[in-house]
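haha ok so turns out i had the wrong file open the whole time. this is the CORRECT one, sorry everyone. sequence first:
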Amino acid sequence: MVRGLSLRAYLFVIVLLMLIFGGIAGYLYSKFSTLAATDFTPPPITIAAATAQTAIWPSQLEAVGTIRAARGVELSSETSGEVMSISVASGDAVKAGQTILTLNDGRERADRRRLEANLKLARQLYERDSRLIKRKTIPQSQYDRSLAELNSAKAQLAETDARLDNKRIIAPFDGTVGIIRVKVGDYIDPGTPITSLQDLSDLEVDFSVPDRYVPNLRPGLDITVSVAAFPGTEFKATVSALDASVDAGTRNLMMRAQLEQAKGLLPGMFARLVVDLNQSQRVVTIPETAVSYSLHGHTVYVLAQSKGQTTVRPRVVRTGETRDGQTAVTDGLLSGEWVVTAGQNKLYRDAQVTIDDTVELP
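then structure:
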């Protein structure tokens, strides 16, 4: 009797265990079936896109240069002396021939009065001997001596006049006086800087370009000039001259351009230039935000549609200039291809994407 009860207990336990493990197995099977049926594909990434376009761009060359006055000098004295008077103020406009500064010329003026008297006497003696030689009442040697003394007196007076001129600093052309670096009472030596004189009505810009562009360069090319002092303002210029040789150290060619309507510009300003080479070129352009730059190359993400899905693939391209927010692609992309312009940081090869509603599909 006891043995029968024990057997039934064992059977009950076995059935109970089977039910428990069967339930666990069913639960696990249901979970694994659900996981197997789940789609782990990442959701599409939202991006913005644009179509590569074909454009005609003028061929341009960028350079930097320095603005200079076509007529501009640093004034200094050729002789030494004490500054007696300064006839202009810093920043004044002066005319050609106007006196800017005068040195002490008292000794030279005294010498001139003495030499004027000597010249007057020498002229009188010469005129007297000229009459006497015609009458043959004096020897030829006396007449020759009178003529030589007259010429000598004229030369001495001219020399003194030259020294007097050196005591005055004269404006060689119309222009604007810079900061005057001396004052009345100063004693200056030859070569001492006094001030600058610049003709601000006639400005030029000097710049240099690599020698590989030489075949495309010539006088008359149009230039757009910009300076930091006038942001957003462009000044026009025209190439006026090319240097006769290329600098052997830099392999650059020096050029000069004539500025037009350069009001407000000053000599010495740093300038950025864009030279129009007057040669149009056909280029493929994309928004500059479409290009990802790295040491390994410039990359764009190109979109493709397959089986109703839109995916992207990175592509290395070669880029050129950027103008007005558009970058030229010289190699690696065709006109009409579709590229990502925003959201590249979330992309990877063959990633599914969805286009922002504000961007029209091609």
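The chain has a mean pLDDT of 87.
again sry for the mixup
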